[in-house]
Design a protein that fits this description.
Elements (H helix, E strand, L loop, with lengths): L2 E5 L5 H13 L3 E3 L8 E11 L2 E2 L1 H10 L3 E10 L6 H11 L3 E9 L12 H19 L1
Parallel strand pairs: 1-2, 1-3, 3-5, 5-6
Antiparallel strand pairs: 3-4
Helix pairs in contact: 1-4
Bound molecules: flavin mononucleotide.
Length: 139
Amino acid sequence: MKVTVRYFTRTGNTKKLAEAIAQELGIQAGDITAPLDEKAEILFLCNSVYWAGADSSVKKFIAKNKEKIGLLVNVSTAAIKGSTYSQIKKIAQKEGVRLSDQEFHCTGKLSALHSSHPDEADIAAVKAFARKVTGDKNE
Ligand SMILES: Cc1cc2nc3c(=O)[nH]c(=O)nc-3n(C[C@H](O)[C@H](O)[C@H](O)COP(=O)(O)O)c2cc1C
Protein backbone atom coordinates (compact mmCIF):
# COMPACT_ATOMS: atom_id res chain seq x y z
CA MET A 1 0.00 0.00 0.00
CA LYS A 2 1.46 3.35 -1.06
CA VAL A 3 1.15 5.89 1.75
CA THR A 4 2.42 9.43 1.26
CA VAL A 5 2.83 12.40 3.60
CA ARG A 6 2.82 16.01 2.38
CA TYR A 7 2.72 19.21 4.43
CA PHE A 8 2.47 22.95 4.18
CA THR A 9 3.92 24.96 7.05
CA ARG A 10 4.64 28.59 7.80
CA THR A 11 6.16 28.28 11.26
CA GLY A 12 7.09 24.61 11.60
CA ASN A 13 4.23 23.13 13.65
CA THR A 14 2.67 21.18 10.81
CA LYS A 15 6.02 19.84 9.69
CA LYS A 16 6.42 18.26 13.14
CA LEU A 17 3.17 16.34 12.70
CA ALA A 18 4.08 15.31 9.16
CA GLU A 19 7.48 14.05 10.24
CA ALA A 20 5.97 12.16 13.15
CA ILE A 21 3.52 10.39 10.82
CA ALA A 22 6.31 9.63 8.35
CA GLN A 23 8.58 8.30 11.08
CA GLU A 24 5.80 6.08 12.41
CA LEU A 25 5.17 4.63 8.95
CA GLY A 26 8.82 4.37 7.94
CA ILE A 27 8.54 6.82 5.04
CA GLN A 28 9.66 10.38 4.25
CA ALA A 29 7.45 13.46 4.51
CA GLY A 30 7.69 16.05 1.75
CA ASP A 31 6.37 19.57 1.47
CA ILE A 32 3.68 20.37 -1.04
CA THR A 33 6.10 21.89 -3.51
CA ALA A 34 6.93 18.26 -4.32
CA PRO A 35 4.18 16.95 -6.60
CA LEU A 36 3.03 13.35 -6.15
CA ASP A 37 5.21 11.20 -8.37
CA GLU A 38 2.93 8.18 -8.18
CA LYS A 39 -0.57 7.45 -6.93
CA ALA A 40 -0.90 7.59 -3.16
CA GLU A 41 -3.45 5.11 -1.91
CA ILE A 42 -3.50 7.16 1.27
CA LEU A 43 -2.27 10.75 1.37
CA PHE A 44 -1.83 12.40 4.75
CA LEU A 45 -2.12 16.10 3.94
CA CYS A 46 -0.85 18.15 6.85
CA ASN A 47 -1.89 21.80 6.82
CA SER A 48 -3.06 24.55 9.14
CA VAL A 49 -5.38 27.48 9.68
CA TYR A 50 -4.14 30.91 8.52
CA TRP A 51 -6.47 33.89 8.56
CA ALA A 52 -9.39 31.59 9.40
CA GLY A 53 -8.82 29.18 6.54
CA ALA A 54 -6.69 26.62 4.75
CA ASP A 55 -3.87 28.11 2.69
CA SER A 56 -4.56 28.55 -1.02
CA SER A 57 -1.39 26.60 -1.86
CA VAL A 58 -2.87 23.55 -0.12
CA LYS A 59 -6.06 23.85 -2.17
CA LYS A 60 -3.99 24.19 -5.35
CA PHE A 61 -1.97 21.11 -4.40
CA ILE A 62 -5.17 19.05 -4.16
CA ALA A 63 -6.42 20.31 -7.51
CA LYS A 64 -3.08 19.73 -9.22
CA ASN A 65 -2.58 16.22 -7.84
CA LYS A 66 -6.16 14.97 -7.78
CA GLU A 67 -5.55 12.06 -10.16
CA LYS A 68 -2.88 10.72 -7.82
CA ILE A 69 -4.84 10.83 -4.57
CA GLY A 70 -6.64 7.63 -3.59
CA LEU A 71 -7.83 8.71 -0.14
CA LEU A 72 -7.08 12.11 1.34
CA VAL A 73 -6.60 12.24 5.09
CA ASN A 74 -6.63 15.70 6.64
CA VAL A 75 -4.23 16.56 9.46
CA SER A 76 -4.24 20.13 10.76
CA THR A 77 -3.33 22.52 13.53
CA ALA A 78 -4.70 25.90 14.58
CA ALA A 79 -4.06 28.28 17.44
CA ILE A 80 -7.68 29.34 17.96
CA LYS A 81 -10.13 28.08 15.39
CA GLY A 82 -10.88 24.41 14.69
CA SER A 83 -9.47 22.29 11.91
CA THR A 84 -9.28 22.94 8.17
CA TYR A 85 -11.47 19.88 7.51
CA SER A 86 -14.56 21.70 6.21
CA GLN A 87 -12.53 23.76 3.76
CA ILE A 88 -10.52 20.78 2.59
CA LYS A 89 -13.80 18.90 2.17
CA LYS A 90 -15.14 21.61 -0.13
CA ILE A 91 -12.12 21.51 -2.41
CA ALA A 92 -11.98 17.70 -2.33
CA GLN A 93 -15.63 17.53 -3.39
CA LYS A 94 -15.07 20.08 -6.14
CA GLU A 95 -12.08 18.16 -7.49
CA GLY A 96 -13.63 14.70 -7.07
CA VAL A 97 -11.08 13.58 -4.48
CA ARG A 98 -12.15 11.07 -1.83
CA LEU A 99 -11.70 12.52 1.66
CA SER A 100 -11.56 10.32 4.74
CA ASP A 101 -14.07 11.19 7.43
CA GLN A 102 -11.30 10.54 9.91
CA GLU A 103 -9.13 13.56 10.61
CA PHE A 104 -6.46 14.61 13.08
CA HIS A 105 -6.40 18.04 14.62
CA CYS A 106 -4.41 19.59 17.45
CA THR A 107 -3.41 22.97 18.77
CA GLY A 108 -0.41 24.69 17.23
CA LYS A 109 1.57 27.43 18.89
CA LEU A 110 1.28 30.99 17.67
CA SER A 111 4.05 33.08 19.24
CA ALA A 112 3.44 32.85 23.00
CA LEU A 113 0.01 31.30 22.63
CA HIS A 114 0.02 27.51 23.26
CA SER A 115 3.78 27.74 23.15
CA SER A 116 4.42 24.06 23.81
CA HIS A 117 2.25 22.70 20.98
CA PRO A 118 2.41 20.39 19.18
CA ASP A 119 3.76 18.71 22.33
CA GLU A 120 4.77 15.13 23.08
CA ALA A 121 1.17 14.07 23.61
CA ASP A 122 0.14 15.59 20.26
CA ILE A 123 2.99 13.76 18.54
CA ALA A 124 2.03 10.46 20.18
CA ALA A 125 -1.60 11.04 19.21
CA VAL A 126 -0.83 11.76 15.56
CA LYS A 127 1.34 8.64 15.37
CA ALA A 128 -1.52 6.57 16.79
CA PHE A 129 -3.88 8.20 14.28
CA ALA A 130 -1.54 7.29 11.39
CA ARG A 131 -1.41 3.67 12.57
CA LYS A 132 -5.18 3.55 12.89
CA VAL A 133 -5.86 5.00 9.45
CA THR A 134 -3.35 2.78 7.68
CA GLY A 135 -4.40 -0.25 9.74
CA ASP A 136 -8.09 0.30 8.92
CA LYS A 137 -7.17 0.31 5.24
CA ASN A 138 -5.38 -3.03 5.57
CA GLU A 139 -8.38 -4.76 7.11
C1 LIG B 1 -0.14 34.21 9.32
C2 LIG B 1 -0.86 33.34 10.34
C3 LIG B 1 -2.24 33.42 10.45
C4 LIG B 1 -2.92 32.61 11.39
N1 LIG B 1 -4.28 32.70 11.49
C5 LIG B 1 -4.93 31.89 12.37
C6 LIG B 1 -6.35 31.92 12.46
O1 LIG B 1 -7.03 32.66 11.76
N2 LIG B 1 -6.94 31.09 13.36
C7 LIG B 1 -6.22 30.23 14.15
O2 LIG B 1 -6.80 29.47 14.92
N3 LIG B 1 -4.87 30.19 14.08
C8 LIG B 1 -4.22 30.98 13.20
N4 LIG B 1 -2.87 30.94 13.11
C9 LIG B 1 -2.14 29.99 13.95
C10 LIG B 1 -1.76 28.75 13.17
O3 LIG B 1 -2.90 28.03 12.74
C11 LIG B 1 -0.93 27.84 14.06
O4 LIG B 1 0.15 28.57 14.59
C12 LIG B 1 -0.45 26.66 13.26
O5 LIG B 1 0.02 25.68 14.15
C13 LIG B 1 0.62 27.08 12.29
O6 LIG B 1 1.14 25.95 11.64
P1 LIG B 1 2.59 26.00 11.01
O7 LIG B 1 3.55 26.26 12.14
O8 LIG B 1 2.75 24.69 10.40
O9 LIG B 1 2.59 27.11 10.02
C14 LIG B 1 -2.18 31.74 12.22
C15 LIG B 1 -0.78 31.68 12.10
C16 LIG B 1 -0.12 32.46 11.17
C17 LIG B 1 1.37 32.36 11.06
